[in-house]
Write a structure and sequence with these properties.
By secondary structure, the protein is α+β, with helices and mostly antiparallel strands. The chain contains eleven helices and 17 strands. The chain folds into three domains: 3-79, Helix Hairpins, CATH 1.10.287.110; 147-188 and 223-280, Sandwich (HSP40/DNAj peptide-binding domain); 287-392, Urease metallochaperone UreE, N-terminal domain (HSP40/DNAj peptide-binding domain), CATH 2.60.260.20. It has helices spanning 3-8, 11-15, 23-37, 46-62, 65-79, 100-103, 119-122, 155-160, 301-306, 364-376, 383-391, and strands at residues 113-114, 117-118, 147-153, 162-173, 189-190, 199-204, 207-212, 221-222, 235-246, 255-258, 274-280, 287-289, 292-300, 308-313, 318-323, 332-335, 350-357. A hairpin with a 2-residue loop joins strand 1 (113-114) and strand 2. Homodimer.
């Protein structure tokens, strides 16, 4: 995408969010719209494909904090009319004369700073050369789009780490032309319009504006004899399988980035990235809090009163925990080092919550024994409650 796209296109509207939307709101909206308009879910629907391209382009900018900041600043600058011409024919912000070389860091040492860099860096794809008197930079083949997919992992695999094959049906490099779009035995030739620069320049008063060359779509070369397989694009939709390593301790909702494994760039351009969203299936026994695993274990009333040695499972075996006499329901015991292994090799803990079970039915013998126990047991300390109750009697 060019800087001209940044000025003309409203990426917030494309994603259906406000300009003040948080990163999470932008991500949530993008994922929803991408699922709804994905070509795999709308086969043969060119409008859905265009919507998918639009939301992907918008998220590529708004999903990156640095690009989003520069996009907002550029839109604000151009939207304010800072570069409109006045009646005298000179480009003047606010009616005051200015030197274009000052704006782009030219003579005199004056450089307008914008997001940590000169305006010439930011507008390099709009204004010729990024500064006064410079030459247009070649664009080259466009980078491929990023690809997102989702993988569900079993709870033990997420804790321990696992390598899984991931099958994707997405655009890939054409094997017939190896991505350059030309018929085997031929090569792309330099564009006669932009002479390989990928951009064309037009003068408008005090400014020189550059835009992608329409003859070669900004690539700098044209394909005279197109590849019969990809029809000159350099990419084809195909099924591919990748072995993806999910590190130990990967969490539900985490996103893993595989650089260069997304869609290939058009006609040999660099590939985008593949983002894998992780969903962890719940386990029937264990839960997770950060790097600690959690487990609830029921115990009897007698075990809580008298104490016991309790043998409980872990993900890799068993461990014995000591339940001290007089343990109340809800007490948490800790098995150190039996949780999620961190990157530094240390591990979280297994937190065992004890749940004292009250039997719904008792045998006659058990009831008699419990009544004898109750007679010998001092009453619960409820004096402060009884005093309040007597006030209402």
């Amino acid at each position: 995408m060019s800087s001209k796209d940044w000025i003309e296109k409203d990426y917030y509207a494309a994603l259906g969010v406000e300009k003040s939307a948080s990163s999470d709101e932008i991500k949530k909206s993008y994922r929803k719209l991408a699922r709804e308009s994905h070509p795999d879910h709308n086969p043969g629907d060119p409008k859905a494909e265009e919507r998918f391209k639009a939301v992907s382009e918008a998220y590529a900018v708004l999903g990156d904090e640095k690009k989003r900041r520069e996009y907002d600043e550029m839109r604000s600058l151009f939207g304010s009319g800072a570069f409109r011409r006045n009646a005298r024919g000179a480009g003047q912000p606010g009616g005051m004369p200015f030197d274009v070389s000052d704006l782009f860091g030219g003579a005199g040492g004056g450089e307008a700073r914008f997001g940590g860099g000169g305006l010439g860096d930011l507008f390099s794809s709009i204004f010729t050369g990024g500064g006064a008197g410079g030459a247009a930079r070649p664009r080259g083949p466009a980078r491929g789009r990023d690809v997102e997919t989702e993988v569900a992992l079993d709870f033990p695999d997420a804790v321990r780490g696992v390598t899984l094959p991931l099958t994707l049906r997405a655009p890939g490099v054409c094997e017939t032309c190896h991505g350059n779009g030309a018929k085997p035995g031929t090569q792309p030739v330099t564009c006669p319009v932009c002479h390989g620069a990928g951009v064309t320049t037009r003068n408008q008063g005090s400014f020189s504006f550059s835009e992608p060359c329409r003859n070669c779509q900004g690539v700098g070369t044209i394909v005279e004899e197109k590849c019969p397989e990809c029809h000159g694009t350099g990419g084809v939709t195909k099924t591919r399988t990748l072995n993806v390593r999910f590190p130990a301790g990967v969490a539900d909702g985490q996103r893993i980035r595989l650089a260069g494994r997304g869609e290939p760039g058009e006609r040999g351009g660099p590939a985008g990235d593949l983002f894998v969203h992780v969903k962890v299936r719940p386990d029937e026994l264990f839960g997770r809090t950060g790097d600690d695993l959690t487990l609830t274990v029921p115990i009897t009333f007698a075990e809580a009163v008298l104490g016991t040695d309790l043998r409980v499972p872990t993900l890799d075996g068993t461990v014995t925990l000591r339940v001290p006499p007089g343990t109340p329901s809800g007490r948490v015991l800790r098995a150190r080092g039996k949780g999620v292994v961190r990157k530094d090799g240390r591990a979280g803990d297994l937190l065992v919550t004890l749940d004292v079970v009250v039997p719904a039915k008792l045998s006659d013998e058990a009831r008699a024994a419990l009544e004898t126990f109750a007679e010998q047991t001092p009453p619960a300390a409820r004096e402060h409650l009884d005093a309040r109750v007597r006030r209402f009697s």
